[in-house]
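ok so for the tutorial part 2 we go from a plain amino acid sequence to predicted structure tokens. step 1 is just haveing the sequence, like this:
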Amino acid sequence: MAQVVWRAADRYRGGEAEAGIETRHAFSFSGFYDPDNVGFGLLVACNEERLAPGAGFAQHPHRDVEIVTWVLEGELEHRDSAGHDAVVRPGDVQRLGAGSGVRHTERNAGSGPLRFVQMWLVPGAFGTEPEYEVVRGIADSTPFALPRTEAVLHVRRLADGERTAVPDAAFGYVHVARGQALLDGGDGGETVLREGDAARLTDPRERELRARGGAELLVWEMHAEPRYG
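step 2 — the prediction. this is what the tokens look like for a chain of 229 residues:
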């Protein structure tokens, strides 16, 4: 039963402070490269983004990656080369399936700070048609099965002391978006996960998470590793 906890303080710092962009990377990304930390299961990026009002990312391309975004605070404006234009708010799940190629911009559309988590996963098929969707106000415990992958996102918003099971999968990834949670070690012990911390689990059967003072969790259930050929 393998478990690796990646603390918020150990995330790679990125972004562009003078442009109002602060980024914290969980995996190798852009100018940060660690050959021992390039992904986990199908997940190859889990970025915490903080954008000042008016700040954003100029148009840039993506290809053959599934990008899932969860807004914690503020309003995220998305525009892409396929003609999609949307504002994503807390409680919404945004998915951009880059497929054969798409360009997009992301910007803080509100008057206050914007904070979101963006996660990239490798799809099971390459060169497909680009796709875009927003699920508005996804209900707690409603699984979001990511098309074209063997991955499911579970959003868990737990009150103090409330428990939830970690999905049974070859790879489980738990990101604490808010608050704190205790992860059952399977041997009677517990690991404290605080805001920004993440746990990477292999064979996570019969594992539980328990909120301490309330918690918002993003839990990935992944049944495969990337296949490139």
